[in-house]
Amino acid sequence: MKTKDNLVLTLDAGGTNLVFSAVKNGKVLNESVHLPTLSGDLEEFLTKLVTGFTQLQQKLNQDITAISFCFPGPADYENGIIGDLENLPFFRGGVALSRMLENQFHVPVFINNDGDLFTLGEALGGLLPEINEKSEKKFKNLLGVTLGTGFGGGLVQSSRLYRGDNSAAAEVNRMSNFLDRNESVEEVLSIRGLKFLYAQKAGFSPEEVPEPFEIYKIGMGQSEGNREAALEAWRIFGTVLGDALANAVSLTDGCVVIGGGLSGAHELFLEHAVNQMNGSFQKKDHSRVGRMEMKAYNWENEASQAEFLKNEAVLIDVPFSNEKQKYFPLKKIAVGVNRLGTSESVAIGAYAFAVNHL
């Protein structure tokens, strides 16, 4: 990836604020523009996008190479067309957002899912390089998931996003909750899901439920509250996450990075997730077979990380020759939390995607 002198404008389109920022030569710059997300109609919202990027460009006073950012779906990301959005109801019937911005700024415009760009950022400058720096075996694939308002995902193969034919690859939120097949997994793996679990276990009404950070502190014994209920809520949360990750990893066969606001509570749920991933199925003859073909290791646990990094490669003979070949008989993946911070990972991912496609 060539990074020299490339200046890419990015956007974090949140439910409250539109945060416009810039990345140059792979580094997030300090300059930014903040505008409120709330808009009365589509024209007002689109005008804010143009205004935000214009103000940022004027602050930087430099020529820009591209615009690259994440935006909610459903969308045809390859062509930059946004579909019918639940949280922005005035997006209906397909809005050609990339083409509109290209006409305004006369540079290429790239739009992706936030889970995709988060995963790409962590694959290039976050968790995956950290794993490969320490491990003799080098890993090229990364599944990323974000835990926050919803449950998002992305998939990187050999430093490139895998988006699928309909821009819908790694849409993990559409998996089913194995505890209740009538629900999507997002009904548990989200802020609302965690709050519901805690309310259910503590006997609270929805109005009384504290926010996730408070539930985390209660579980850690740092705040007063029903600690047993908090720990049980996080245990269920982690178990459901582990089930979803096991299904996804069986297809991706790569390490996993977890981001989003709820990832900060990994001490209370990550071990449960990894244990679920390493579970087993019963066969007809009553023997057991591993849930996954590979074993997952908790990268955030010192002992588990040491086990993952243990060099178990062996040299085997090449038949009919005097040669030997290195063989890794144990299949392993690491599961850890983001290293850059979710917002920075998204920005770095947006920059890298743009530069690679120019």
Brief overview:
This protein has helices spanning 42-60, 97-105, 114-125, 127-134, 191-202, 212-219, 227-252, 266-277, 302-309, 342-357; strands spanning 7-13, 17-24, 27-36, 66-70, 75-76, 81-82, 95-96, 109-112, 141-147, 151-157, 160-161, 176-177, 180-184, 255-259, 280-282, 288-290, 295-298, 314-317, 324-327, 332-337.
Which helices and strands occur, and which strands form pairs?
Layout: E1 7-13, E2 17-24, E3 27-36, H1 42-60, E4 66-70, E5 75-76, E6 81-82, E7 95-96, H2 97-105, E8 109-112, H3 114-125, H4 127-134, E9 141-147, E10 151-157, E11 160-161, E12 176-177, E13 180-184, H5 191-202, H6 212-219, H7 227-252, E14 255-259, H8 266-277, E15 280-282, E16 288-290, E17 295-298, H9 302-309, E18 314-317, E19 324-327, E20 332-337, H10 342-357
Parallel strand pairs: 1-4, 4-8, 9-14, 14-20, 17-20
Antiparallel strand pairs: 1-2, 2-3, 5-6, 6-7, 9-10, 10-11, 12-13, 15-16, 18-19
Helix pairs in contact: 3-4, 3-10, 5-7, 6-7, 7-8
Describe the protein in words.
This protein has 358 residues and is α/β, with parallel strands linked by helices. It folds into two domains: 106 residues, ATPase, nucleotide binding domain (Nucleotidyltransferase, domain 5, 2-Layer Sandwich); 223 residues, Nucleotidyltransferase, domain 5, CATH 3.30.420.40. It is built from ten helices and 20 strands. The strands form six sheets. It has a six-stranded mixed β-sheet, with helices on both faces. Strand 5 and strand 6 form a beta hairpin. The radius of gyration is 22 Å and the shape is globular. The termini are close together. The relative contact order is 0.14. The mean pLDDT is 94.
